[in-house]
Amino acid sequence: MENGEIKDEEEMQKLNYLLKTKKWNPYCIRHSAMTSDSDYLPEYALKKKVRWSMNSKHGSRYIKKRMYSDLKNRILEHNGTFIQYHQNPEPLNLSCSRCNFVNAHEYKYYSECSYPLTPEAFDQLKQNEEQRFTALENKLIQDMESKIQQILLKVNVENLREEQ
Questions:
Q1: Is residue 63 exposed (0-12), middle (13-18) or buried (19+ Cβ within 10 Å)?
Q2: In the chain, where are the structural domains located?
Q3: DSSP of the chain, one letter per residue?
């Protein structure tokens, strides 16, 4: 609000009202974050993240309450709320297995070694190679045929000379 990033006047009035009239505790933010993190972090990792000692009993408060997302989704589906299952997000950066250079995900080829990133890029690379090989093969066949024609012409010319 101080920076003027909120443009909606109605939202600005609601936030001003809440800040002036409601009491809130910063611990609520920490508690919400820990509750959310307990869904996917094991107990030792949660303790390490929030800087509790490993013998602390505080972690059990969050770990006991957690339900895994599969269980949550089953309960929601049973109650008539259908959840769209999220696939694992694609990484933003990829590192090349050949040269270990890190590239952005949207590139087709690695910028250092031109190694293909996607299956489509690999297929395109193979198709280009096949086209080049086919062109070289056709050129070789044409060259061989022209050489054979030249040799046959020489032989015919020599045979004609001998007959005369």
A1: middle
A2: 9-84, 87-117, 118-164
A3: -TTS----HHHHHHHHHHHHH----THHHHHHHHHHHTTTS-HHHHHHHTT--TT-SHHHHHHTT---HHHHHHHHHHTTPPPPPPPPPPPSEEE-TTT--EEETT-SB-TTT--B-SHHHHHHHHHHHHHHHHHHHHHHHHHHHHHHHHHHHHHHHHHHHHH-
Task: List 103's β-bridge partners, or say none.
Answer: 94
pLDDT in tens, 11-59: 888 888 888 887 777 777 788 888 878 777 778 888 888 888 888 887 7
CA atoms within 13 A on the CB side of 91: 8
């015919």: which residue's tokens? 156
Tally of CA atoms within 13 A in the half-sphere of 40 that contains its CB: 4
Q: What is the pTM of this model?
A: 0.35
Q: Is the dihedral of CA 86, 88, 93, 96 positive or negative?
A: negative
pLDDT digits (tens, 9 = 90+) for 84-114: 655 555 556 666 666 667 766 666 766 667 7
